[in-house]
Amino acid sequence: MPETASTLTETERAEVNSANDSGRRPVVFVHGLWLLSSSWDRWRAMFDDAGYAAVAPGWPNDPTSVEQARADPDAFAATMVGEVTDHYLEAIAELTMKPAVVGHSFGGLIAQKIAGEGASLATVAIDPAPFRGVLSVPLSSLKSSAPVVSHLSSLRHGVTLSFDEFRYGWANALDEDEAHALYDEFHVAAAGNPIFQAVTANLNPFTEVRVDTKNPDRGPLLLIGGESDHTVPVKPTEQAYKIQSKNDGITEFVVMADRGHSLTIDHGWSEVAQTTLDFLERFAR
């Protein structure tokens, strides 16, 4: 059979090679919807300073900058959870040392899928999108996803949030000035398909939004929830924790007080990053 073409960009392959050459433990960062991999830049610097080799691939076909993403919102249109997971697994397979994996939002779901493949030494999932088996659907989640699921055109086009939609789903725990600043600096369009996949996960036995929570090679897992998150409230994350805690591996759950979905990029990002780093220091060295 012919080999499958690589989905890694030259930049992503260079990051992997740099991590391998460093001899340091890699930490792979997985971003979620409405962000690019550049949203991890401050985290990467912090983890590099702590002695790790930070690697932050994008999703397949991600534009290389926020400006390019805003110029072509449909670049995100066709993306699905399975192909994103495979993209990160391809990057991890090129690493010479088993990495820790950190993901936010849909990146937190994908991080758990990677852990379920036994490909992560230790994993942190922050405000993770729910996987099949998580049944809680709070009203705020429904409202946050409405810009996508209320329009079938979201299956064919990238979806850009208005500032008011971003403020409700992401920046509800922030003042308006910071909310505007984050919207201007980070927000890009997102693929609608993953949200439709998540919404239908418990109705579709063949869904890609499933996680192997029973794999004995899953490794230690930390789930972090934002107390004030509207997009992924604490309840679904708590349910994911209860399911994951049946694994024989270490499973922990932390709630960050008064934090919304923007907790990885807003003024309090370093507190979340330090909580993540403290967990990985226990298991990923």
TrEMBL record:
Molecular function (Gene Ontology), one example: hydrolase activity
Protein keywords: Hydrolase
InterPro entries named in the record: AB_hydrolase_1, AB_hydrolase_fold, Carboxylesterase_BioH
KW Hydrolase (keyword) present: yes
Keyword presence, Electron transport: no
Pfam families xref list: Abhydrolase_6
AB hydrolase-1 domain sequence ranges: 27-274
Protein name: Alpha/beta hydrolase
Source organism of this protein record: Gordonia jinhuaensis
Source taxonomy: Bacteria, Bacillati, Actinomycetota, Actinomycetes, Mycobacteriales
